[in-house]
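Request: When convenient, would you put together a sequence paired with its structure tokens?
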Amino acid sequence: MRLKLHAMPHLLRYPYGRRNKSGVAVVLLFMLALLPCAARAASRGMHTYALAMNGKPLYPADYKHFDYVNPHAPRGGALKMAVDGTFDNLNGNIIFGNDAAGLDYINDKLMERAWNEPFTLYGLVAESVDVAPDRSWIEFHLNPKARFHDGVPMTAEDVKFSFEALKKYGLPVRRRVYGLVKSVQIISPHDIRFTFGKGYDREDVMILALMPVLPEHYWVKHDISKTTLTPPLGSGPYKIVSVDPGRKIVYQRVKNYWAKDLPVNAGLYNFNTITYTYYRDDGVSLEAFKAGDYNLRREYSIRKWVTGYDCARLRDGEIVREEIPHHRPDWLRAMIFNTRRPMFHDRRVREALGLVFNFNWIDRVYFYGKVKRITSVYPNSVLAAQGKPKGQELALLEKYKKYLPPQVFGDPWQAPSGDMRAREAKAMALLKEAGWVYKNEMLVNAKTGQPFSFQIMIADPSDEKIALAYERDLARIGITAHVRKVDAVQFTGRLNDYDYDMVIWRWINSLSPGNEQVAYWSTAAAKMRGGRNYAGIENPAIDALAESIGSSKTYKGLMARAHALDRAIMWGDYMIPLYYMGYDMVAHDADLRRPKKTPIYGIVLESWWMQPQKDEKR
């Protein structure tokens, strides 16, 4: 029973239609009798159909569908895509093996994410939840209609089994969060509660709610810890119907899918089949697309996008190419200074080296003018700082003022512009202030005479041209840079050990940043082997701002913290930011259609469909 005492003020004001002592007494006795029920209701926390990381869900409880789908999209046809490489595993629940593409289609989760919100989940297998005000526990209430593909109902026992299996064998992020759970209580066949112990945060209930529900009755007969090429039993909108190991996998839409009519799935999963074909070489894959062997291609190379698609099918209108804008944070790609190296301790040195990087030349020559310069930790998103700081953002910066450069209180960081000669002159002045002098066509340390020389480590061949161009930029002011390309294994090892002077690498953010910001920027992470503070940042202000991100209860508060952190990092000149696009490059057959509205995170292929009439207008 969920009772709201504040919902009955009229009983106290006018019991039985008029004020009298006996009536009030009766009502008070009635209220006292209900107090145990109210206490039990309060102990259950907030009952809700959706979970938002910050603030409130966008869609009301009676929503019919997400606003980035076409609820009337026709069903049928086949979606065919390509993947580079190979695969050897259909058990996508473990860390071992090379998973086949598309395995998320076969298992339903407790709750499903909406892609038009920063981080909000809506009921799927769990039709509702109760969650503690401090998010120390969460109780899932399963939809009694939920079924696996063999017709067996999903129960709380399956959820508990899934939790235990994924905690033991699953991906590291799940194992970390699941490891914080202190107890699991099955309340009824369709109700289960998870209680967290020490060390949990607000995001952990969200991660738990994204748990796929696995069929215990199937996996007790199979080893869930092992890779397999036998299609496992699932519960989702598709099932595996054909496997050519390492080469091709085909999924078929489940016609009697238990959740096909739920609002969370309306307008989604429209193709009868989805096929992934594997190619060893992306060049061969592109030629296969132009020949019509598959019908949708995500492109990641600007060079190929600009120069590689000329073919008869494109000229005849059989292929459509689209640059589809999105508003998710793009990767923060950068040439990262390892400030653990003495030569990069001084911020003036880092600023000077950023001044001589000729981004405009690289954009024009290598990227055909189709990229933008990164100016934020969260490029292409609302989390990027705007204007001068004010309100909560300003208060946060003022609190840590002594640890921050004064520029954080002005406009956000902007990439250097103007004449390259003027920028080089400014760079030389900064370097001189920092103790470096130009002598015999070399930049040397004024005290030791040691030349300014360092190595740029890369792994991706596409980064080599950027590094070599920067090497030439540096040579003009007397700095010697050596570009060192290493293989993937060596790159990972040296990255984990911070064994580099400068590295071209990236950080990945979402519209709902959390504790990963501590892993990216904190002093503790800088000293931890295998951490992701690649720049070696050690700054008390950045520590505090990164830590505060995960405690934000409203999205407005989250943005204030993110904006402040953005300014502190960018004005610290810990990196030379590279580029982003702000759109997805997609080529597809003309009879594939998508909804008019694209969500903030970009295209959702599950919402696309095949138009039966090819001559119908798009």
In short: The domain at 332-580 is CATH 3.10.105.10 (Dipeptide-binding Protein; domain 3). The chain has 19 helices and 26 strands.
